[in-house]
């Protein structure tokens, strides 16, 4: 019996054809990804080059090369822009807030990863919901609350805000990482009479050093580059962090004449330390983040 053409079922595409389509899409994605990487690297190189040129030469030839490696622009940004004080504020604020965030999030994440009941499930969902709240929404409530306890224009208040804002992501990341760790060693420690805190301190933390380092570095990068909260909560020049000091330096140039070389040098001071940290720890950071998110 011959089936008319209009009643024939369309043939399914073969696995080879689907595989070819996926290969083409993957190839296009790789090309676009590398194009984006090359564009960003080229921008970084151009920024560093312009940091060694003066304003007149930059405006005359934006794509030119410096005639010397005179660090005068960095000296200008460091002194006129008061980047020396801002750098110290950023280093202290970033390290303190990142360390305290991880120190508080690690025990909470360990408990949530090992105990499953209604309370822990609700707490886990509470932290997950915190990931969806943008910082712009809570700026005004935070300012009002800190003003009530006299912690506006204070690095202590800024540290508290950074810790609170960073807790949802850090707890979420470390909870997933702790769940990826084997339970055999913890069970053996429990049979030997080790307390829950002793097990966490002596066994789990050493095993989780990759995830702890990943969480710490991510918080360092985030807090170092954070601008909105610092710009809102800090008013005194001596309390400025680097991103706020850079904005203030740009505003100064508006009235005194734009010093483009100094501005590029200021950008280098803000960006290059975090780039160096990522190049140093990038592979370990990626491995820790992938392992934690994969569970």
UniProtKB/TrEMBL annotation:
Lipid bilayer topology: Multi-pass membrane protein
Transmembrane segment boundaries: 27-49, 91-112, 124-144, 156-178, 199-221, 260-281
Taxonomy, superkingdom: Bacteria
SUPFAM superfamilies (UniProt xref): MetI-like
Family classification: Belongs to the binding-protein-dependent transport system permease family.
InterPro entries: BP-dep_ABC_trans_perm (IPR050901), MetI-like (IPR000515), MetI-like_sf (IPR035906)
Domain ABC transmembrane type-1: 87-281
This protein's UniProt keywords: Cell membrane, Membrane, Transmembrane, Transmembrane helix, Transport
Location of this chain's protein in the cell: Cell membrane
Pfam families: BPD_transp_1
The protein, known as: Carbohydrate ABC transporter permease
Organism of derivation: Microbacterium commune
